[in-house]
Please model this.
Amino acid sequence: MNKHKYWALPKLTVPQLGLLAVLMAASLAIGRLSITVGTLRISFVFLVTVLIARYYGPVWGLLIGVLLDFVKAVLLSGTGLWSPIMAAGVGLAGLIYGWGYYQVARPSWRRVLLVTLLITLVINMVINTFALMVMFSQVKSWSVFLTMLAGPRLLKSLIFFPIQTVLTYWLLNSHFVQRMDRQVWPR
Model:
């Protein structure tokens, strides 16, 4: 694989731009269906993020992730509360998904497990917990961070990790994604 092309912003055809617009709209719609209890949020937006990074690469994954995070927070949330730390986590997630899945025809269980573990540990548990502490806690300290991490966020990560792994593997190896590869990205 050409490393220059891997980290570049490739020129997109009209069908590729159309699919990107549909995926972005799907991300916004699925994000509205998330369940939020306190600072704990359960959402399946990661599936759309996986597809964007899979089809468009790590750089597009990062840029589109940050853009969608901003649109969701400022225009759709009703609060207008946007966190650059949370946006960095979303962008990094797009970068990691792109690193793991871009130009990979059929990712193995091992690859999906590794990428999902990396997302769970680095993004969900560390960056997002830190962002929530900065946004909502009166006291900013390691003990507050560890308390937030050890509570429901850890439990959510332990429960959601296998779900996210199975759904990601199923999606990326589905006939739908394979057919989209042939139709939108002819080799």
